[in-house]
Design a protein that fits this description.
Layout: E1 5-6, H1 28-47, E2 49-56, E3 59-61, E4 66-74, E5 92-106, E6 109-122, E7 126-129, E8 133-137, E9 140-144, E10 148-152, E11 156-158, E12 165-172, E13 183-191, E14 202-204, E15 211-215, E16 222-226, E17 229-242, E18 247-250, E19 254-257, E20 264-267, E21 271-274, E22 292-300, E23 304-306, E24 311-321, E25 337-345, E26 352-361, E27 365-369, E28 373-378, E29 383-388, E30 392-397, H2 400-444, H3 457-473, H4 477-490, H5 497-516, H6 523-532, H7 537-555, H8 562-587
Parallel strand pairs: 3-10, 23-30
Antiparallel strand pairs: 1-9, 2-4, 4-6, 5-6, 7-10, 8-9, 11-12, 12-13, 13-17, 14-19, 15-17, 16-17, 18-21, 19-20, 22-24, 24-26, 25-26, 27-30, 28-29
């Protein structure tokens, strides 16, 4: 901007005054011509000095900087140029960048122009009309006004061409979330009109390093009335789950605006969060770490089943929260039921977890699946809550295969008692005969020969007792078990998995009863007697695995191939042999 000159130029110091009486008459025209020339020269010199103050850009954001360029130039030989003076405080800090002197030739004289550059750093937000810049040259003062400048916040931009306002903001649903509790982060872009450019604004959300992040689908732009203006609003939403307890700062989000003269960056404020640990007061012992709001539902694949068959119980947990914290519910004890599982079932809905359990009832009747509770922490109420299923009744019918097996077992037991009674009766008869013969020999005084059995009484009785002991001693338990395994391997009637598993389990339990004094035919009791007998951990694990497989194939309708049956028999024989070797070593 050109500046005006204040005041007028005077004569230089030491110039003598002019008196018309001292000049000759013929010199008077020359004198007046000189006065006119001097006045015209002084006027030309005053009008030949130009000053300017230019700011670029005239619209900035807080945190950005503007440039102030000051120049003083003219067509005359400018000398003794002083630096311009101005003061824009408190709105701006002015930092000198550089100054430049440019000489040039004008009208056969060396003319000089001077330029100064400053950096303006805004200290406040608003519209500012800057004061004049003062230039001093050869005793004269010149002024140049830089005009006005607008400073907006870092999250706002006003486009001069369209007069549209563009703004960004970010917020969270809570600043004090609990560990693993969900909170919502929302980024908004608000604008009153679309920018006159082909490119679109580009949002850049921060990196949420201390959170599990769930991206929610974006919403369509909507209009809202905000602070007396109608804005179009675009939102991007993230669901965050904090992973550590601490004070966490979410960095600012930015938006790159493609303005006509380049790009403009809008920036939101940082967000400070304090992540709290879950409260210890009122925490149930069964709490497994689920945080959110959940419901639990239970269902079975059938309401009627045969004993020994498996039914599937499905537990579905759904709701709002971190599914990473959801674990499989623990079933309460159900008497007379073998429980296998759980197994995770893949869900098409990300807010749902499903777990499947296999339930095998051992006896007929009415099976009542009890209510199943699931405990979680509700961050909205800051309490531990419980969701619960309803009890499910299931009708269990007798298994025809098990009935046949029971009849066979009862028949075999009856025959065992018959055989034992016959052996006992035979023993009584033999003992009576020997007693009668001894009394007869004593009464008659007949000597009994030690080799023929007709000698003295003292020789007859030991021989009779020794023979009875040989008769009643029987086969060792290990031999009985091996014979039973051999018979089981040759028996073609054990093709059914249930009958084969039942027979194999009976062989193992009978051997443990005869050698280790097993009192109950259960896996836990077998484990206890083996530990007391000093059976090694490796042998014990093999024994428990065999008994578990037998229970599984006794109750689950799963077929067994010939190779699988042969493998199970071989493993059983190895376990019995290992236990027998241990017992022999201990007896030594």
């Amino acid at each position: 901007m050109e500046a005006g000159k204040q005041g007028s130029r005077g004569w230089k110091d030491g110039a003598p005054p002019f008196h018309s009486s001292t000049l000759p008459t013929k010199s008077l025209p020359i004198f007046f011509l000189g006065i006119v020339f001097i006045l015209l020269a002084a006027k030309a010199q005053g009008q030949g000095v130009n000053v300017a103050a230019v700011i670029n850009p005239r619209q900035i954001q807080i945190g950005e900087k503007a440039r102030l360029d000051l120049t003083l130039s003219g067509d005359t030989a400018i000398t003794h140029i002083e630096a311009p003076k101005f003061n824009f405080l408190p709105a701006f800090l002015a930092v000198p960048l550089h100054s430049k002197t440019t000489p040039r030739l004008a009208s056969n004289k060396i003319a000089v122009s001077m330029a100064w550059a400053y950096e303006l750093i805004p200290q406040a937000i608003g519209d500012f009309s800057l004061s004049d810049v003062r230039f001093a040259y050869q005793g004269n003062t010149y002024f140049a006004n830089p005009g006005s400048i607008r400073v907006s916040s870092a999250d706002t931009y006003t486009d001069v061409s369209t007069r549209s306002v563009h703004q960004v903001e970010a917020e969270v649903s809570t600043t004090e979330p609990y560990l693993n509790a969900p909170l919502t982060y929302t980024f908004r872009y608000l604008y009153t009109a679309v920018l006159p450019t082909q490119a679109s604004p580009t949002p850049q959300l921060p990196i949420f390093r201390d959170f599990l992040v769930e991206e929610l689908p974006p919403l369509s732009p909507q209009t809202q009335r905000i602070r007396g203006k109608t804005f179009w609003v675009q939102e991007q939403v993230r669901r965050l789950y904090p992973q550590r307890t601490a004070q966490i700062v979410i960095a600012p989000a930015t938006l790159l605006l493609p303005v006509p003269r380049g790009r403009k960056t809008l920036k939101t404020d940082p967000l400070k969060l304090t992540v709290q640990p879950l409260p210890e007061t009122g925490k149930p012992a069964q709490f497994s770490g689920a945080v959110g709001e959940y419901q639990i539902a239970a269902q079975v694949d059938r309401r009627s089943i045969e004993a020994g068959r498996a039914l599937t119980l499905s537990l579905q947990i759904s709701g709002r929260g971190s599914m990473q914290t959801v674990t499989a519910p623990k079933l309460p004890a159900i008497p007379g039921v073998v429980v296998n599982g759980p197994t995770r079932v893949e869900d098409s809905v990300p807010t749902t977890r499903t777990y499947a359990y296999a339930l095998i009832p051992a006896r007929s009747g009415t099976l009542r699946i009890p209510a199943i509770a699931y405990i979680y922490f509700d961050p909205s109420r800051a309490v531990y809550a419980t969701a619960q299923t309803s009890p499910i009744p299931v009708s269990v019918r007798p298994n025809p295969t098990d009935a046949v097996g029971d009849d066979t077992a009862e028949s075999s037991l009856w025959w065992i008692w018959v055989i034992l009674f016959a052996v006992l009766l035979l023993g009584i008869l033999v003992a009576g005969f020997l007693w009668y013969r001894t009394r007869f020999q004593r009464a008659t005084g007949t000597p009994i020969d030690t080799t023929t059995g007709t000698g003295s009484v003292n020789n007859v009785e030991p021989k009779g007792r020794t023979g009875r002991q040989a008769e009643t001693q029987g086969t060792p338990p290990v031999s009985q078990a091996r014979d039973a395994l051999t018979a089981l391997a040759r028996n073609d009637t054990t093709d059914a998995a249930t009958a084969f598993a039942n027979a194999l389990a009976q062989i193992l339990y009978q051997y443990l009863e005869a050698t280790l004094g097993l009192t109950q035919r259960t896996i836990d009791t077998a484990r206890e007697v083996c530990i007391q007998a000093g059976v090694s951990e490796q042998i014990l694990e093999e024994l428990v695995d065999l008994l578990t497989k037998c229970d599984y194939h006794r109750f689950a309708p799963v077929p067994l191939t010939a190779n699988e049956r042969s493998t199970l028999i071989t493993r059983t024989e190895a376990v019995i042999s290992n236990i027998e070797n241990l017992l022999i070593t201990d007896n030594r």
